[in-house]
Design brief:
225 residues
């Protein structure tokens, strides 16, 4: 499990779309924290700090120590990020309080090892096809892994990695993997042959007709005087 990440926030008392627009104009991000049988609390965070946090992959899946108004931090998870459709602007964040000893579901990234030395890529000239970039796990907060690693070194063209092929840390379960033999055991990563484009040969130019061959049937030569 990665080290906890400290997130600073301030409480807010103004609500509604108008208040949220004013916060954004002041480079603040409206947010909310909920869960653990406590009342939801409206928050605001500095936009530049949020942008910096979101550049860290662990921010999306690891425990976050959320401190509100400088008070003692509580453990939370980031549950939702709303972004502007085309501006580099975060519109809203949702945090969930974490209860010690209570299992939760969290999404963690898949990290591929030895991509450059993968047999199917380096020797056979294939390419790696990623169907999914993350998986959902169920575990206690203290057992959240930073990522799930997949070793690509020995995979050849035609080989693939399914959910059931993943090696889980102790006391961590895959949420989406059902009973053996059902349709839940989907492909996550595969090695495929690269597509080749075959250019068609241009058709040969038609051979021009020999002199005299294009005379119409029945034509006669001019008579001499």
């Amino acid at each position: 499990m990665a080290d906890d990440i400290l997130v600073a926030a301030a409480s807010r008392t103004l609500f509604g779309k108008g208040a949220s627009r004013r916060l954004r104009r002041e480079n603040l991000v409206p947010a909310i924290v909920y869960g653990a049988e406590d009342e939801p609390q409206a928050l605001q965070l500095k936009h530049n700090e949020v942008i910096k946090h979101l550049e860290n992959e662990s921010f999306y899946s690891q425990l976050l120590m959320l401190s509100v108004d400088g008070k003692e931090a509580v453990r939370t998870l980031l549950r939702d990020v709303q972004r502007h459709p085309y501006k580099q602007q975060v519109l809203h964040l949702d945090f969930q309080r974490v209860v010690a000893g209570q299992a939760l579901q969290v999404t963690v990234p898949l990290h591929l090892l030895n991509e450059d030395t993968c047999y199917g890529v380096k020797t056979e000239g294939g390419m790696i096809n990623r169907t999914e970039n993350e998986v959902t796990l169920s575990c206690l907060p203290r057992n959240i892994p930073e990522s799930i690693e997949i070793d690509m070194a020995d995979l050849k063209i035609g080989d693939s990695i399914h959910l059931s092929d993943l090696t889980m840390p102790a006391d961590v379960e895959l949420v989406d993997l059902g009973e053996k033999g059902d349709d839940s055991d989907r492909i996550l990563i595969s090695v495929i042959a690269q597509r080749t484009i075959v250019e068609e040969e241009p058709e040969a130019d038609a051979v021009p007709a020999a002199d005299g061959d294009d005379k119409k049937e029945g034509d006669s030569e001019e008579s001499s005087d």
